[in-house]
From TrEMBL:
This is Tripartite tricarboxylate transporter permease. Keywords: Membrane, Transmembrane, Transmembrane helix. It comes from Phycicoccus avicenniae. Pfam families: TctA. The keyword Transmembrane helix applies.
Length: 508
C-alpha cells in the first residue's frame, strides 16, 4: 500500500499541463528517431542530453521516459514496412512483421507491435513499482566489495556473454575504461592520461562521448555505405489499424508470453532486449510448428506480438534495476544514469530516501508515457512511416549539425568539438569492425564506481584481496557470472560444431 500511495503522489506531480507536455514531446521525439533505421532510443537520448541542462530534474527525466519507450515503439515500424529494423531490438519482429506487410496486413502488423509494446511495458512497470523499494532495501546491504562485484558483473556480462565475439566485446570495454580514467585522480589529485591538456583535467564529458559514438559515428558509417546497397521498398500501410477478434485471440497469449521473457532480462546486464526478443520469437515459432496449420513464414501475428512485448518489458524492468541498484543494464539505461548524475543524483537505495518524490513521479510518468505512445502509434503509424521517405543526405546532415550544436552548448568549448570528431571516428571504426558500443558506454558510466569501490574495499581491509569475496552477495554475483560464462561458452562451442558438421556434410 505504501507503494501505491507514493505512486498516486507521483501522478499528482506528473499530471500537470507542463509535465504532460514534456512527456508528449519526449514520446514524439523518441518515436520519430526510433522509426529511422540505424538510430533508436539511445541515439535520441544522446542527442537531447545536452539540451536538458536548462530544465529542472523532473521535467528532464519525465521527458526522457517518453523517449525511452518511444524509441522502442518506433524501431519496429521500419522493420515491418521496409524489412530494415530501426534497431537490433526490432530484428525478431521484422521476420513475420514484414511478411504481414507484403500480404497486405501492414496496419494490423503495426497495431500488433504497438499494443504489444504497450502491454509489455505496462506489465514490467507495474512490477517495478512493487519491486523497486524491495530492491532498494536489498541494495543497502551492499558495501564497496559488493558494488565492485556488481560493476564487474555488468562489465563481463555485457562484453563477453551477450556479444557475438567475446574478444570484440572486451576490446570495446577497454575503450570505455580508457576514457573513464582520463582526468584528475580524485583519491591522489594527480593527473592521469590528460597529456598536460587542461581541458582534459575534468575528464572526457559523457555528453561528448555519447554524441560522438552514437550520433557522429553512425553518420560516418552510413556515409561510407551510401550507394553500396540497393534501396529498400517501402510497403504502403493503408486501412484501419484495428485487430479482429481472431487476431486478438492469437496475439494475447503471445503478448503475455513475450512479457514473461522480457521482465527478467531487464534486471540483469544483458546489453539490451535482443536476447529476450529472440527467445520470445523462437518460443512462438516452436509452438506454431505443433499446430495443424502452421503460420510462421507467411506472416504470423504471434511472431510480431511476442518480440514486441518482450522488448518493452525488458525496457520497463531495466528502469527498476537502474533506480534501485544504480545498475544500467543497456546502453540507453547507461545514458539515463548519466542524466541522473548530471543533476547530482545517484540512483541506488539512497535515491528513494533523499529524492523519493522525484523517483515516484518518474515511475508515474512511465505509465503516462505508455498511454501517450499508444495513442500516438496505434492510429498514426502510417504517418510515422513517412519519415522513412526523407533523403538520407538531408537527415544525417541535420543530425551532424544538431550533434555539434549540442556538444558546444554544454561547455562552449572548441576542444570538445574536436574531441567529438576524434571519438566519432572511433565510433565509425568500431562499427566497421563490428565492435559493440554498449560495453563502451557501460564502462564509461560504471568505471569510476568500480575503481572507487575497489580502492575503498582494499583500503578498509589493509589491502586484503579476500575482502572482495567475503560476503554472500559478492560470492553469489561472481558465481552467477561464472555460470553465465560457462553456459555461453558451451553454446558457442556447440554452434561451431554444428556449423563445422554442416560444412562437412555439404556436397563439394
Amino acid at each position: 500500500m505504501d507503494q501505491l500511495t507514493a505512486l498516486l503522489g507521483g501522478f499528482g506531480d506528473v499530471l500537470t499541463p507542463a509535465n504532460v507536455l514534456w512527456i508528449v514531446l519526449g514520446a514524439f521525439l523518441g518515436t520519430a528517431v526510433g522509426v529511422l533505421p540505424g538510430l533508436g532510443s539511445s541515439m535520441a537520448v544522446a542527442l537531447l542530453l545536452p539540451l536538458t541542462f536548462a530544465l529542472d530534474p523532473l521535467a528532464a527525466l519525465i521527458m526522457f521516459s517518453g523517449i525511452y519507450f518511444g524509441g522502442l515503439f518506433g524501431d519496429s515500424t521500419a522493420g515491418i514496412l521496409m524489412n530494415t529494423p530501426g534497431n537490433s531490438t526490432a530484428i525478431a519482429t521484422t521476420f513475420e512483421g514484414h511478411r504481414m506487410a507484403l500480404a497486405g496486413r501492414a496496419p494490423q502488423a503495426l497495431a500488433t507491435a504497438a499494443i504489444g509494446a504497450f502491454l509489455g511495458g505496462l506489465v514490467a512497470t507495474c512490477l517495478v513499482v512493487l519491486a523497486a523499494p524491495t530492491l532498494a532495501d536489498l541494495a543497502t546491504r551492499f558495501g564497496p566489495g559488493e558494488y565492485f562485484a556488481l560493476a564487474l558483473f555488468a562489465f563481463v556480462a555485457i562484453a563477453a556473454v551477450v556479444g557475438e565475439s567475446a574478444v570484440r566485446g572486451l576490446a570495446a570495454l577497454s575503450v570505455g575504461l580508457a576514457l573513464a580514467v582520463v582526468g584528475i585522480d580524485q583519491s591522489t589529485g594527480t593527473e592521469r592520461y590528460a597529456f598536460g591538456v587542461p581541458a582534459l583535467f575534468d575528464g572526457v564529458s559523457i555528453v561528448v562521448i555519447t554524441v560522438a559514438l552514437l550520433a557522429l559515428g553512425e553518420v560516418l558509417h552510413v556515409a561510407s555505405r551510401t550507394g553500396r546497397a540497393g534501396a529498400r521498398e517501402l510497403v504502403p500501410s493503408r486501412g484501419r489499424p484495428w485487430l479482429s477478434r481472431a487476431d486478438l485471440r492469437k496475439a494475447l497469449p503471445a503478448w503475455l508470453r513475450g512479457a514473461g521473457f522480457g521482465v527478467p532480462f531487464g534486471f540483469i546486464p544483458a546489453g539490451g532486449a535482443e536476447v529476450p526478443t529472440f527467445l520470445a520469437y523462437g518460443t512462438e515459432r516452436s509452438l506454431d510448428a505443433r499446430r495443424e496449420e502452421p503460420e510462421f513464414g507467411t506472416g504470423a501475428i504471434r511472431g510480431v506480438a511476442a518480440p514486441e512485448a518482450a522488448g518493452n518489458a525488458t525496457a520497463g524492468s531495466a528502469m527498476g534495476s537502474l533506480l534501485a541498484l544504480g545498475l544500467p543494464t543497456s546502453a540507453t539505461a547507461a545514458l539515463l544514469l548519466a542524466t541522473f548524475q548530471q543533476y547530482g543524483l545517484q540512483p541506488g537505495p539512497l535515491l528513494f530516501e533523499r529524492s523519493g518524490d522525484l523517483v515516484w513521479a518518474l515511475l508515474a510518468s512511465l505509465f503516462v508515457a505508455l498511454v501517450t505512445l499508444l495513442l500516438l502509434n496505434l492510429p498514426f503509424s502510417p504517418l510515422w512511416a513517412k519519415l522513412l521517405e526523407l533523403p538520407q543526405g538531408y537527415l544525417y546532415a541535420g543530425i551532424t549539425v544538431f550533434a555539434g550544436l549540442g556538444v558546444y552548448a554544454t561547455g562552449a568549448s572548441g576542444f570538445d568539438l574536436g574531441l567529438m570528431v576524434a571519438l566519432g571516428l572511433v565510433g565509425f571504426v568500431m562499427r566497421r569492425y563490428d565492435l559493440p558500443l554498449a560495453p563502451v558506454l557501460i564502462a564509461v558510466i560504471l568505471g569510476p564506481l568500480a575503481e572507487y569501490s575497489l580502492r575503498d574495499a582494499l583500503g578498509n581491509s589493509g589491502n586484503d584481496p579476500t575482502t572482495l569475496v567475503s560476503s554472500p552477495i559478492s560470492v553469489g554475483l561472481y558465481a552467477l557470472l561464472l555460470l553465465g560464462l560457462a553456459v555461453t561458452g558451451w553454446r558457442r562451442r556447440s554452434a561451431r560444431r554444428s556449423r563445422t558438421g554442416a560444412d562437412a556434410a555439404a556436397p563439394s
